[in-house]
Each structure stands twice: as C-alpha cells, then as structure tokens.
C-alpha cells in the first residue's frame, strides 16, 4: 500500500524540446536535394548513382563498425552518415571511378568519424577529409571533370570551357570529354593573359545556374542557395557563416585580387564575382563551414571561423598551386576550432560591462 | 534607447496555458486534515509553538520564525493539533510538520489591520509582512521582509513586480491579476512605500493581454501613481530575476551577487497581493492560489487552497484519473519539482500541480554534436555543453572559471539539446560538488 503513491521522478526540466539529431540531419538532406536535382540535370543520371553509392557506402560502413566492431547499437538512424555520403559525392567529379567514391566514403566514416568516437567527436568534416584523401590519392581523376553536353541551358564562353585538361596535363584520366573546372580554366587563362572581361561576365549566368564543369554538387549556385536559405529558415545554420565566408572572399578579391588594376574597379569586381560563383564556395560555405561538430560552438567563434575560411581560401586560390581553396580552408579551420572555442567566450551575464 | 522588453537567449516553448487561463479562481473546500511543514521558505526552519491536543484557529501561528532569515507558519483551518512529527515534504525529505485535524468550527485569528498604512513607518509595515509569514510565492520562497530590509550602503531605486509567469501551464498570477487587481496594486503601493522607490514596474508577459489591459487601466488612476506596467516578450525564462532586471532596467546583477547589488528588488505578484492582505486586513499567509492542470486532470482550474492540504486530496477533488498519473510536478514543468509521493502538503511557494500522463523521455547516451543550441538558449550566456563536459571529467576548477555557479538552473539548455543530453543535471551536480567542497574547506579553516 505504501508504494501505491510512488511516482516517476525526474529532474527538471520535465519537458523536452522536439528537436533531435535525426531531424537536423533530415533538414540538411532536404536542403541538399535541390543541388542533387541540379546535378542530375547537368551531369545526367550518373550523378544520382554516384551519390547513392557514396551514401550506401557511408551508411554500411558506419553500421558495420558500430555493430560488429564496437558491439553497440547502430547509429545510422541519426542520418548523419547519409549527410556525409551526400556531401562527399557532391565534392567529387561525376566521372570518377565508383570504386574511388566508395573508398572515399569508407575512409570518411571509418577513419575520420568512427575512429574518433563517432558523431560529435570527429575533429574534421568527414566528407571533406574523404575528398582530401581522394585528391591526394588520385589527383588526376579528381581534377578532371566530365560535362554532359546534353540538356543544358547555356555554357561557358569558348575560351573558358574549351580548355582540355588532357591537353594541358598531357594525361587522360578518364574517358569522355574532359574539361577543366572554371577555376582551373581561369588559372590557366590568367597565366597566358588571354582573358577578356566580357568573357567572364558572360559566364556569370552559367555559373549561377550551374551548367558548367565541376564536382557533382558544387556547380549550381542557385540550387545551393535554395538549400542554404532553407537551412537558415529552419534555424539549423548560422547565416553569418556563409555571409562572412562568401562576402569575405568577394571582398578580398575586390581589394587584393588584381594587383595591376585599381581597387574596386570594374575588373576587380568581375573577377571577385567569378571567384565566389565558382569552385564550390557556396557548397562549402552553406554546408561544410556550418557543420556543427567541427566548427566553433559560439556565434562569435563561428564568425571567426568563417572569416578564417575566407582568408585561407583567398590565399590558396591566389598563391597556391591549387586553384580551388574552399575545402582545404575549411579543413584547416576545423583544426583551429578547439582553439577558437577555448579563446572565444560569450560575456557571462553579470560580468564585465553593464552594471 | 530602443528597448525590446526582452533579454538575450531563452527559448520559446508551448505554453499550454489554455487549459486553465480562462477559469476563474475557485475556492477549495476546507480539508479535514492538513500538515503545516516548518520549512516553507529559504532559511532556518520555523520553531513549533503548539503541542499535540491544542486547539488552533485558522490563522494561528503554529511555528515561529527562528532567526533572521526565517518565516512563521500558520494553521490554515481551525482544528486540533493531532500530531507533531516528521512528515514527507514536497522536497522528498522528511521535515517536521504540525498535523491539524479540522473540528468544524470556523474561528479565525487575524492581526490588527493597519488601515492608516501611509502614516506608518516602513519598519512597522515590514514587521507585519514578516509576522504574516509572507515569502516569495513564485517558487523560491525567500522571506519577503528580508528582501525589503534596508541594506547598509546599498541603494534601492527600483522595485520590479514579477508577473511574467513564464513557466508553461501555470495561470495563477494571470488569474490573480484579472480578479484581484486592486489587491495587487495596493500591495504594490505598500511595498513602494517601504522601499521608498519612485517607480514600480509590474512586468507581465505579452501573452496575457487581458491582464495587461486591466492592470494598465487601473494603474493609470491617481491612486496608483508611479506604477508602470511593462509588457514583456513572451519567452522563457522571462520571469527570472536576472532576466527581468536586464529587460526592465537594462542593468545586470553582478555575477555571484543579488538583485540588491543592481539597486533593485524583485517580488512576485502573488506576494504583493499577500502583502495587501497582511497589512490592510491583518491576514497571515494561510492560503494561496494554485493551478491544477494536466491531461489526467478532469477538472483543471485555479483554486484557493489552504496551505498544508495534501496534494493527493486536491488531485482527488479535481477528479484526476489516478490510473493515468505518471508524474506530478509541483510548480511549472521547467523548474518545478517532480513529486516522489503525492501524500505531501501544499506549501506557500507551490504555484501549481501539474499532472503528466506521460513519462518525460529519458536522456540518451548520444554525444554532444556541438550544435550550439544550448549556448544560444542560455540567458546567462554560459556554454552549457562545455560545463557538462567539465563535470564529466571532474574539471571543477575549469567549470568555476567558466562561471558554472552563475547557472540559474532554468533548464533551457536541456530543453533544446537535440542530442537529449541532460545538461542541467550535470551542471547542477557540478554546482553541488563545488558547494560541498567549499563548505568542507571553510570547515577545515575554522579548525
Ligand atoms: S540551466 Fe543554466 S546553463 Fe542551462 S540554460 Fe539555464 S542558466 Fe544556462
Ligand atoms: S545542445 Fe546538446 S548537442 Fe548541442 S551543443 Fe549543447 S550539449 Fe551539445
């Protein structure tokens, strides 16, 4: 009888919000769908198959590791492996060997994520680390880019899209039509000083829509923007991060991009525009520089992170031998995240200013 | 300066007030048996002054204040002291209590009303408030007269009346403002006189439009000059003392200090009404309005309940489906206490009884995904995830450095965490470890 009145006890708060990790990941997946659709329109069905392969490999790897190696309950239900798979695929050229895609996904999940303790403990963005791994292992396959010429709306001006990477590198990595990604192209063109301003301007529309060469997910700025706006609307990402990152790269090019022309000139503006619209900057800024686990936890820290990404991207693109700089900048800043989190503290109520 | 009447951080939660917000305050029938605990406030327990077998009237003191920070307790019915001993308390502990069995008589004891309170000195009014056992009725239960006491070299230039009622489900303050507007405003005037402050701010969340309207209308009359009604953003924990002070006055309470250090006193609106009763009618604090609500309650509502009534009886009276009860919470769902047992008496600071028919989902073993939601939600601007991690690694010094002791235990961080980590519980445990350690250290120093 005594126990009749005993109830469940718990510590406050007694109610819980509805947000879950799975829901967050689902939102990210939804936000990636426009880019996926764009990639199918641009590169054909192969883009979808590649994405599916990467996702399947990522999910299977995580499942196998957590169930068979760690003997724990599977964590694939949180959908984070799906996101990693999608992001990895989006960072690969469509014509890459599927085996490489799978290898990249396995690497990303097994080494970068699970080996450090799973979601929340990885210190680098797994998708980007996977990409970096593939880039180091298969540089040829990774920089080539096939561009399906059917069904697209416009195209890059002749001297941008026409450069054949095989002709320049002297090696054919893949079958089909290999063209340089826009950033590779502009690097080469800049080197031989054949660039025409109007050519660049003509390319803006194509860059925005995305029917240009590049990796599966990076080409359509429009689609990425749609997804990014969705994530901001859902409160998943901090809009300051993409704004500062993209804005930062733009500004740096505007000021320092063209040493031989005056600042803020029309040329500088055109070049800056070209730089932010290409090279996967939008993909990185909206989907990878905002990755929760590997970026700082405070808003202030996130702003510093984004600014750092912008600066490193600019430096790599301008002075590095490698035309793209987005993924390395994010990976590098990932390493700074613990330091930023340590140094950047919010002002606690009742301390410092304001009495 | 442009003031949005809110603070940084906090969360928006389903308020669930519709169940009871339009139900007028009802009288609860006289209970057959009550238990008056000697500890219904923060501070020293009161000292029992009656014996078993004594006849007591309603309003008779059964336990006196014992010490500076303490508060007397009164019988809320007329009856016979049937036993004095250890009784289960809302906190779950055994606490001395005076059990009184009703005798059906209706005699009542009151203090002499102070009708000419405007001519009385603050100390007389303050003594009356202490004598009547008035404590903060919002949940904390800090003796009101202690808050009003003048502090050497500390000025007070503002009084904030907390009527935000930001906890979900609770509607007592809301109903009180609609039905006892004058009582509240009179109480506020008395408090204003005691503190001799020019302005009093009554802060009400915007979701109580009717209350704001009624209070504003009355407060603009000449009689209540100097009282300002402040509509606040509807956000939890808008009713926290610190949040109110930064919202209304744009000041901050220095870390580790009290509102008085921001030249300000914050009192609950129900306490203001009780002050009016105490001074103008001489009625000690023997009853209070509580909200009884939740899905398993068939007759939810706002009831005036004699303090000391058993929770179980109240739930029976409100036709609660006992088979459905999974959890009963004293207070609101964010900061209230879940009761291990419903055979406990209602206290002065019990603002509601929330009966839940579901168990709160248990906390998970997920890792923190560093999403920063808890950081955004913390209105004290701590980094809750970090504090929780420090606790797990026994890094108390680091936790202290990151102001763990400033956590107001509002629960926002636990509420928003998508990984469902019980952050607050870890922080709370961390805090109590530190307090214990400090106590031990000061003990050894004395030796
Ligand atoms: S419980 Fe403490 S740490 Fe958590 S949000 Fe509230 S004040 Fe911040
Ligand atoms: S809300 Fe939870 S998961 Fe997110 S940072 Fe805070 S503790 Fe980590």
Short description:
The complex is a heterodimer of chains A (355) and B (447). With 355 residues, chain A is mainly α.
Q: Roughly what percent helix of chain A? A: 55-70%
Placed side by side, the strands forming the largest sheet of chain A appear as 1-2
Order of helices and strands of chain B: EEEEEEEEHHEHHEHEHEHEEHEEEHHHHH
Major sheet characteristics of chain B: 6 strands, mixed
> How would a crystallographer describe the biggest sheet of chain A?
2 strands, antiparallel
Number of E-type strands of chain B? 17
Low-pLDDT ranges of chain A: 145-180
Ligands bound to this protein structure:
iron/sulfur cluster
- Shape descriptor of chain A: globular
Order of strands, main sheet of chain B, comes to 1-14-13-17-15-16
Q: Estimate the mean pLDDT confidence of chain B.
A: 89
Determine the number of helices of chain A (DSSP H or I, runs of at least 4 residues).
16
Principal-axes geometry of chain B comes out as: globular
SSE string of chain A, helices as H and strands as E: HHHHHHEHHEHHHHHHHH
């Amino acid at each position: 009888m005594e126990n009749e009145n005993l109830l469940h006890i718990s510590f406050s708060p007694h109610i819980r919000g509805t947000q879950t990790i799975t829901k967050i990941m689902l939102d990210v997946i939804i936000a990636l769908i426009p880019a996926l659709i764009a990639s199918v329109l641009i590169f054909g069905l192969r883009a979808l198959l590649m994405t599916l392969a990467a996702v399947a490999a990522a999910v299977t790897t995580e499942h196998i590791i957590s169930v068979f190696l760690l003997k724990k309950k599977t964590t694939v239900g949180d959908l984070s492996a799906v996101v990693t798979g999608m992001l990895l695929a989006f960072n690969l050229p469509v014509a890459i060997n599927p085996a490489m895609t799978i290898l990249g996904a396995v690497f990303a999940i097994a080494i970068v994520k699970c080996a450090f303790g799973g979601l929340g403990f990885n210190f680098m963005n797994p998708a980007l680390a996977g990409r970096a791994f593939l880039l180091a292992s298969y540089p040829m396959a990774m920089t080539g880019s096939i561009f399906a010429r059917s069904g697209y709306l416009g195209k890059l001006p002749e001297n941008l899209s026409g450069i054949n990477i095989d002709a320049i590198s002297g090696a054919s990595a893949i079958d089909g039509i290999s063209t340089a990604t826009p950033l590779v192209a502009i690097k080469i063109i800049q080197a031989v000083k054949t660039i025409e301003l109007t050519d660049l301007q003509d390319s803006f529309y194509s860059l925005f829509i995305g029917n240009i060469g590049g990796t599966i997910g990076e080409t359509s700025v429009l689609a990425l923007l749609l997804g990014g706006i969705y994530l901001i609307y859902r409160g998943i990402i901090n809009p300051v991060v993409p704004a500062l990152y993209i804005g930062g790269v733009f500004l740096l090019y505007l000021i320092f991009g063209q040493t031989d022309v005056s600042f803020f000139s029309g040329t500088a503006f055109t070049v800056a525009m070209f730089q932010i619209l290409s090279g996967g900057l939008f993909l990185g800024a909206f989907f990878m520089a905002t990755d929760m686990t590997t970026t700082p936890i405070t808003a202030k820290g996130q702003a510093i992170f984004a600014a750092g990404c912008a600066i490193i991207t600019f430096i790599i693109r301008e002075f590095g031998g490698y035309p793209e700089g987005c993924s390395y900048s994010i990976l590098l800043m990932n390493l700074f995240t613990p330091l930023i989190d340590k140094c950047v503290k919010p002002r606690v109520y009742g301390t410092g200013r304001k009495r | 300066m442009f003031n949005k009447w809110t603070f940084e951080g906090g969360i928006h939660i389903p308020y669930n007030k519709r169940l009871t917000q339009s139900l007028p305050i009802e009288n609860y029938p006289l209970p057959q048996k009550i238990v008056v605990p000697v500890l219904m406030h923060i501070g020293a327990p009161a000292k029992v002054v009656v014996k078993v077998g004594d006849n007591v009237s309603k309003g008779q003191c059964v336990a006196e204040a014992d010490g500076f920070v303490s508060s007397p307790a009164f019988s809320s019915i007329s009856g016979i002291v049937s036993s004095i001993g250890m009784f289960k308390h809302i906190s779950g502990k055994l606490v001395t209590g005076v059990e009184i069995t009703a005798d059906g008589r209706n005699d009542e004891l009151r203090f002499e009303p102070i009708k000419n309170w405007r001519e009385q000195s603050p100390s007389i009014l303050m003594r009356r408030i202490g004598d009547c056992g008035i404590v903060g009725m919002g949940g904390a239960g800090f003796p009101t007269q202690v808050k009003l006491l003048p502090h050497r070299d500390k000025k007070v230039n503002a009084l904030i009346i907390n009527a935000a009622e930001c906890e979900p489900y609770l509607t007592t303050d809301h109903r009180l403002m609609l039905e006892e507007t004058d009582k509240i405003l009179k109480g506020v005037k008395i408090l204003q006189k005691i503190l001799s402050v020019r302005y009093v701010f009554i802060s009400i969340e915007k979701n109580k439009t009717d209350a704001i309207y009624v209070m504003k209308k009355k407060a603009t009359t000449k009689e209540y000059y100097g009282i300002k009604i402040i509509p606040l953003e509807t956000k939890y924990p808008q009713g926290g003392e610190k949040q109110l002070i930064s919202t209304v006055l744009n000041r901050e309470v220095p870390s580790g200090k009290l509102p008085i250090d921001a030249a300000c006193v914050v009192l609950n609106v129900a306490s203001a009404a009780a002050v009016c009763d105490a001074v103008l009618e001489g009625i000690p604090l023997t009853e209070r309005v509580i909200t009884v609500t939740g899905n398993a309650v068939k007759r939810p509502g706002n009831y005036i309940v004699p303090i000391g009534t058993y929770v179980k009886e109240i739930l029976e009276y409100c036709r609660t489906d006992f088979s459905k009860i999974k959890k009963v919470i004293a207070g609101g769902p964010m900061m209230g206490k879940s009761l291990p047992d419903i055979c406990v008496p209602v206290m002065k600071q019990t603002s509601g009884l929330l009966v839940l028919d579901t168990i709160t989902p248990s906390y998970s073993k997920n890792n923190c995904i560093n999403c920063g939601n808890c950081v955004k939600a913390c209105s004290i601007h701590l980094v809750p995830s970090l504090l929780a991690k420090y606790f797990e690694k026994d890094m108390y010094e680091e936790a202290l450095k990151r102001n763990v002791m400033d956590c107001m235990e509002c629960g926002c961080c636990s509420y928003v965490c998508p990984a469902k980590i019980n952050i607050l519980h870890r922080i709370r445990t961390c805090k109590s470890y530190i307090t214990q350690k400090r106590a031990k250290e000061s003990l050894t120093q004395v030796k």
